Structure formats: structure tokens, C-alpha cells
Amino acid sequence: MQSSLSLSFSPNSSAATISRSHHSFPITTGRPLNLRFCGLRREALGLGLTTSLNRHLQSQLPRHQHSATVSAALSGNGSAPKSFDYDLLIIGAGVGGHGAALHAVEKGLKTAIVEGDVVGGTCVNRGCVPSKALLAVSGRMRELQSDHHLKSLGLQVSAAGYDRQGVADHANNLASKIRSNLTNSLKALGVDILTGFGTILGPQKVKVGSSNSIVTAKNIIIATGSVPFVPKGIEIDGKTVITSDHALKLESVPDWIAIVGSGYIGLEFSDVYTALGSEVTFIEALDQLMPGFDPEISKLAQRVLINPRNIDYHTGVFASKITPARDGKPVLIELIDAKTKEPKDTLEVDAALIATGRAPFTQGLGLENIDVVTQRGFVPVDERMRVIDANGKLVPHLYCIGDANGKMMLAHAASAQGISAACFTHPEISMVGLTEPQAREKGEKEGFEVSVVKTSFRANTKALAENEGEGLAKLIYRPDNGEILGVHIFGLHAADLIHEASNAIALGTRIQDIKLAVHAHPTLSEVLDELFKSAKVKAQASSPVSEPVAV
């Protein structure tokens, strides 16, 4: 998930402002800017960062100033006050920390980034990047294994097979390439990469690694991200009881694997394992699978992604204890009723994947040295990402972004800002905004009507040409003023289609205005075109429903 912040500068002042959405907080600098924290940008793919940055700075700065500033940013990495080693020190070189470092350097800040593991963080090394490599393989396998699908296209293919190590190497090589590009992009800009775990010793002071190396900075950003959450009673051995970190290495493909949790992570791995021949059993604490999705989308997704595949499931139960395989015995999973806590069943499987979400990685940061107490592991911050101490006071010059502060994990925050989410199964699932039950509850409380329209992929020419007509797009909106409350898509390339809706929500665009958008024919984007055109809106006004927010 991405975090959006922006740095806005006044040409006549040395004070800058970092803001997320429409909130801002001060940071010291001397350059005007508009800043956006994004995910993996062009430089992650090695696409000419220096040239694009140079062009950006030339357009941002007065003609007589830009040459000197570009030189400082690209070679000397700006100049810091004599009393500090750096203008900005970032703890954590994941997507959030990397993006913050790039933008800081663009504006002439002398910047360093501290990383105790490897550049790229969870996303590049143990998350988004390698998982999509595995899912690319599972998608190809499904196509090759579907005789009916291939015959409908007039194709004949012999039996499909795979090389496990080759698949694992594909994921690892992709992560290595992106990691290398990210590292090179930082070095090219003069960002200092300090190797070692960062520990805050006091205000504006950080110890790097186990040595006595101490670094000072005018401002510090904590961007340490998150790690897999493992409930009590579950013993991880990294071989037969694993987290997503281990699963992405694909050291084995078990005959039967239990997946604890049926959210995004669990669903994606079920797609991978079943395509490679595993039998999967879901263990879900709530009463239904995919509890975080819109109920109608969940129902359709279960019919397509679960029921026809080699998958069974237990709902309404906790895995109270999981013991790894040892001494010739299988993995043992003890299930209890989620409500009564009474013993329910015992499973014996070849492996178990724990996909119960993520927890903030904030231990060992030295927060006690600045009187900061975490809340369930999260670093407390205000709406401007400024860290708050145990007495409710702001800690000067210290900020925390991303998963470590928990802000982006709040559903209502994501909904309000048009932040989309996607599950890269085959077919994909994507969503932005409220589910239908959430929207109707909000409508009852605030006194407005909620309407819903849907369109099928079976009515889309491009989807039919691909023989991929299984899919649904759903729009939840206010018929009185055209406000988009939520959009949910299940179908071919749903993750790519959702952005038109997320941008509309973020910019406050009304349905009556987005109806006028032109979509190329024949393309999958027409699914959204038909969806918006199906909505019946009473108001004809053409003004944003809310103030635009940064995304």
C-alpha cells in the first residue's frame, strides 16, 4: 500500500511542510516543491532517474537557481547545517523510506537512509514483488491446464509442467533486480545508505548498528514498516509452518497445505499453491471466507476461486495451536470454536501458512529514550505524522510514516482518500471506498440514500475475446449528488481497472461528470464506462463533492 505525503515550500521562507492528504507539518529546507510519496517508481525499473529528475528540477526552479541546485542534489546531496550530519535521516529503506529519500534529495536536503536488512523492505524482498512473480507463474499454469479454455480459442497444448527451483529463481531474480535498481537510484542521487539497525538515542540522534556510530539529523522519519503477524500458540519453523516471508522462497510445494486466514495474502497463495498442484485448506476465524471484501464480490469470488479448485475450508474457528512436522509426524493444527473457545477439530497436514495479517516493526527503535509508548506496536502520531510521546506531546523533529504508525490500516481513512486495494488472484479482485453494508450504514446515520448498479464482464467485447467473461463490477453511490461511495471489481485485470474509480473518489469527481469520459473500444476499461453510465443521478451540478486529496 502506498503512503502519500507532500512537501510544500515557500520561496521566501526556509520552512517546508510535509503533508499527507490535506494535512501538513513543518520541516526545514530551502527549496520550493510539491512532493508525493509513491510506491516503486521509474527508477525501480532502471528508467533514467537522473534525466527525469533534472528535467523536473529545471521546471520547478527559477532559471538562475536550478543549475546550482541540480548539482547539489546529484553530487553533494545538498548542504546541512554545521550542527547536524544530515537534514533528514530516514530509518527504513522500504517503499516509504525510499520515496521519502528521493523527494528530499530532489529539494536539496542532505539525506541518509538507515537499513538493517536490505533496500526495498517488505514490498520488494518479501511481499508485492516476489509474490507477483509467483502469481504470474500460477496464471500461466492455469491457462495451460484449462483444456476447455484453450480449445475454445482453437489451441492445443500438451500437458503443462513446471520446475520448482526455476519458479523460485524467477521470483528471487525479480526481487534482486528491483532491489539493485532502488539501491543504485539512491546512490546516484548521493543519498547515504547507512547499514545497520537504527536506534533512536534521543532528540535528533540515532545510533546505527551495534557499533558506537552515532548520526545526528535535523529531522528524522521512522519508516520501518511491518512484519507478518503470528498469533499465540503457533510455532514457526520456517519449513513446515511458515509465514509469507518463507512461502515466497518456494522451497517446497506441499501436497496439502493449510492456510490460516482468507484475506489478500491467503487468497493469493491459495492461487499459487493450487496451480502448482497442492491441496489447500483455509482456516478462517470469522463466519465467512474473505470477510474484508464486499459480500456480493466475496460470494462470486468463492464460486470462481474456491469451489472449483482443490480447496476446502473451516470457518468460525481459531487455530489455537500449530506444531511443525517433526520425527516423521505431520503438522498438527488444533482448532477451537471462535466464539465458545471449545475444541472443534484437529488437522494433520504437510504444511501450514500463517496469513493472519501484519504487525508494525517497531521493536528496538529506542522509542523509550524519547518517552514514546507504542499502542499495540504502532507508533502514535497526529494527523500530520508527527510522533506523540507518552504525555500526549509532540516529539520535535520526529515523524513516522507507513505501516509503523497504523494510519493507513484504518479502513475509513483509505475510503476517504480513494486508496484502492487489489488481490492478484486469477481472476483479480479490486476495490476502493466502502462496501455496500458500510455505505448503507453510513447513509442511515447521515440521512442520505444509497444506490447500487452493476455491470458484467460478459457484456464486454475485450473480455469475451479473451474468453474471460466471468466477472462483475459494482458501483455504490449517492443518487442525490453523484458521490461515488465505493467501487468493487472481480474479473480480468481488475487491479488495473480500479484506478479510474480511485482517482474519481480522491479528486471528488461526480458520476455525472465521469460519465462524459471517453474510453477506447474495445477495451476492458469499458466495463467502468458502462458502470458509470448505468448510474441514475438526480443532481446535474458539475462541482466536486469534496475537496480533492493527495494520492
State the separation between the terminal residues, measured CA to CA. 11 Å
Mean pLDDT: 84
Largest sheet: 8 strands, mixed
State the helix count: 16
Structural class: alpha/beta
Q: Shape, please? A: globular
Tell me the strand percentage band: 15-25%
Helix percent band: 25-40%
Strands, total number: 26
Unreliable spans:
1-39, 47-81
Give me the Rg, rounded: 25 Å
Structure overview:
The N terminus is likely disordered. The strands form six sheets. Strands 4, 5, 6, 7, 8, 9, 20 and 21 form an eight-stranded mixed β-sheet that branches. A five-stranded parallel β-sheet has the order 11-18-12-13-14. It contains 16 helices and 26 strands. It has 551 residues and is of the alpha/beta class. Strand 20 and strand 21 form a beta hairpin. The protein is globular.
Give the secondary structure arrangement, pairings included.
Layout: E1 6-9, E2 15-19, E3 25-28, H1 49-60, H2 66-76, E4 86-91, H3 95-106, E5 111-115, H4 121-126, H5 128-145, H6 147-152, H7 164-188, E6 192-195, E7 198-202, E8 205-208, E9 214-222, E10 226-228, E11 241-243, H8 244-247, E12 256-260, H9 264-275, E13 279-284, H10 295-306, E14 311-315, E15 317-323, E16 331-337, E17 343-349, E18 351-354, E19 358-360, E20 386-388, E21 394-400, H11 411-416, E22 421-423, E23 428-433, H12 436-446, E24 451-456, H13 461-465, E25 472-477, E26 484-491, H14 494-507, H15 511-514, H16 526-534
Helix pairs in contact: 1-2, 5-7, 5-9
